[in-house]
TrEMBL record:
One of its GO terms (cellular component) is CTDK-1 complex. It comes from the Eukaryota. It comes from Parascedosporium putredinis. Residues 3-139 form the CID domain. One of its GO terms (biological process) is positive regulation of transcription by RNA polymerase I. Transmembrane segments: none annotated. Pfam families: CTK3, CTK3_C. This is CID domain-containing protein.
Length: 217
């Protein structure tokens, strides 16, 4: 059995080294799926890196990683990763593009990724619209020129790789979008799910109230 501490350390290092390369993203995603029995620990690694790492480019790369990772996790049938990210998405957004202005350059990244996740059925449109409303209030501050230059280079590389992506997308009438696959792989709804959904709504309401003045529960 793998040592949990070592698994966390290796995954954390992979998150810190993410860039515009598809290979780097796939490597980290496959690692998390390989050790999916430690899904809660590895999910916490993602959130912790976003909250603790002050480099805006690293946070942006992790945000892009999340979109691709949820696609792979859904395809692999491991929906726990999807559910945990849905639960913590407000923490993630606040970490990637904080309201103190230090992540103002990442606001567009958040919008792009959330829209992609919404289009793939991982998030509801009303939630994305609520987050968009809050992002309008995020102030802008001057960023380190070196970080901006690196962002430009990574965005250019990411766009270059876009056409070379290896992620599964519907290519014909026989293919199903990710949201439909996720629905088919999900067990029937029960009383436990009702209770969990209620608790998650209450938790999300509390977080929205603290992060966004527009939100009213």
């Amino acid at each position: 059995m793998a040592d949990p501490f070592e698994v966390r350390m290796r995954f954390t290092k992979q998150l810190q080294q993410l860039n515009a390369s598809v290979t780097a993203t796939q490597k980290a995603a496959q690692y998390a799926l390989k050790y999916k029995d430690m899904d809660e620990d590895l999910h916490s690694c993602i959130v912790e890196q976003l909250e603790q790492n002050r480099n805006m480019n690293t946070r942006a790369n992790i945000m892009y990683f999340i979109e691709q990772f949820l696609q792979l996790a859904s395809k692999d049938g491991h929906t726990n990763y999807v559910r945990m990210m849905q639960r913590d998405i407000i923490r993630v957004v606040d970490a990637v593009a904080p309201d103190d202005g230090t992540g103002s350059a990442n606001v567009q990244v958040v919008r792009r990724v959330l829209q992609g996740l919404c289009n793939k059925g991982f998030f509801q449109e009303d939630l994305v619209l609520e987050i968009e409303e809050c992002l309008k209030d995020r102030p802008a501050t001057f960023e380190d020129v070196r970080q901006i230059e690196r962002r430009i280079e990574e965005d250019r590389e990411r766009h270059k790789r876009l056409r070379e992506t290896m992620w599964a997308v519907p290519t014909g009438p026989e293919d199903k979008p990710e949201w439909e696959k996720l629905w088919e792989e999900t067990s029937d709804w029960g009383s436990d799910d009702d209770l969990m959904a209620k608790e998650e709504r209450e938790m999300r309401g509390r977080e929205w109230s603290s992060y966004c003045s527009h939100y009213a529960s």
